[in-house]
Amino acid sequence: MKLERGIGYSWYVVFVLLLAQTFSFLDRMIMGLLVGPIRETFQITDTQYSLLAGLAFSLFYAIMGLPLARIADSKSRRNLIAAGITVWSLMTALCGMAKGFWLLFLARMGVGVGGATLGPGAYSMISDYFPKSILARALSVYMVGVTLGSGFAYMLGGAVVAYVENIPEAALPVLGTVYGWQLTFFIVGLPGVLVAILLMLTVREPARRGVKETDANSIPFREVVDYLWTRRKAYGGHIIGVSIFIMVVYALNLWGPTYLIRTFGYTRPEAGWAFGVVMIVAGTAGLLLAGTLADAWMKRGTIDAYVRTILLSIVGLLPCALVLGFATSDVVGISAIALAVFFSAFQGGLSGGTLQLMTPNRMRGQAVAVFQLFANLIGLALGPTVVAMTTDSVFGYDEAIGKSIALSAAILCPLGGFILWRSLASIRSELKAQSANDVQVQH
């Protein structure tokens, strides 16, 4: 199949989707730098704050993620993503209007529309724009938006916090008086609407690979569930194993700046800048290396190369996270964080990419949505909360945040890695079967 408008245009589409992913994580991760002022304003604990940052965002997946993914499998993925960008950008700005814990909780639920529309649609589009020989690199470049968005969230957030922390309250037209930290949500949220406009004006919906003209436009979710359930050893092992590992990844991303603040006395702007640079440099390097490594393995005939690379990610991150519990200098602490972020990024584009390669085209969006449902309810909702509860209830003092991350990683990394490793043979079987089916359809 000839790629629409050539490979150059395909990479342009990845760039636009990368921008969307950047703003998605910018809006999602900005909470990681606002722990102090929001806790002080609403008089809440670390555990309650983790519910705002994690569970509130993840709840949207449980309610609307799968129906939206079905649209991605049958309708215009471009239009779906553009609508999602617009909604999550406006809901981020709405966070700046929240006057209490529950209003902010509801607004954060709205921000969750970002991942619910972007992930299934973007993975599916990229898989239709690129051949398998370079698909891992394309998906990893798209996922660079995660490291850029998270990094910019902390760097920009640090700069904004430095500006607004001396502004106890600000008077805005129409909105009235807001706290200084609430301005951050307006500044990072509203520009995302421009990305939605760019997507609609310049990106075209690609033809679907591996789909016959006689195939149904939409596959009922029940049929998708039946398909995944009959192959539960492969899909369940992959989804659950990666989701447990992602608990550590999200906990590290959310609590990383707070670790620098509480352990080494960094100011919020200093912590935001330091952790932002780490996310952009180490995270991007990890993503690009993982994509290159997986593609090289695939060319040598290692059909489960994506999963093997994820297992390397788990093995590499564990010792780095353990160091955080014992570091006595900021040089050691930041070095450990940088290596942990580097290895944690390996799984970024490859987790969903594995599902693209082992699932029929018309089911791919819904399969990714199922993965994101678990990855967010387990990884994002529980990961930061487990660390927060460990800090609050096990150690009992705020400065133990590094020990909490280390203890959580010591339990969760081996568990997630073991589940994923046990499913490797079944995943390999599904990858071979789907690869043979794709070849048959093309001929």
Features:
443 residues; mainly alpha; Growth Hormone, Chain: A; two-stranded antiparallel ribbon; globular
Q: Main sheet, how many strands, which sense, barrel? A: 2 strands, antiparallel
Distance between the termini: 10 Å
Helix content: over 70%
Strand order of the largest sheet: 1-2
Low-confidence stretches: none
**CATH fold call:** Growth Hormone, Chain: A
Mean pLDDT: 86
How much of the sequence lies in strands comes to under 5%
Q: Looking at this structure, what is the CATH superfamily?
A: MFS general substrate transporter like domains
Structural class: mainly alpha
Radius of gyration, in angstroms, nearest whole number? 21 Å
What would the principal axes of the Cα set say about the shape? globular
Write the layout of secondary structure elements.
Elements lengths: L5 H24 L5 H8 L3 H29 L2 H19 L5 H11 L1 H17 L2 H33 L4 E4 L3 E4 L2 H8 L2 H11 L18 H10 L1 H33 L3 H32 L5 H19 L6 H15 L2 H12 L5 H32 L5 H22 L1 H19 L1
Helix pairs in contact: 1-4, 1-6, 1-7, 1-9, 3-5, 3-6, 3-16, 4-5, 4-6, 4-8, 4-9, 6-16, 7-8, 7-12, 7-15, 11-12, 11-13, 11-14, 11-16, 11-17, 11-18, 12-13, 12-14, 12-15, 13-14, 13-15, 13-17, 16-17
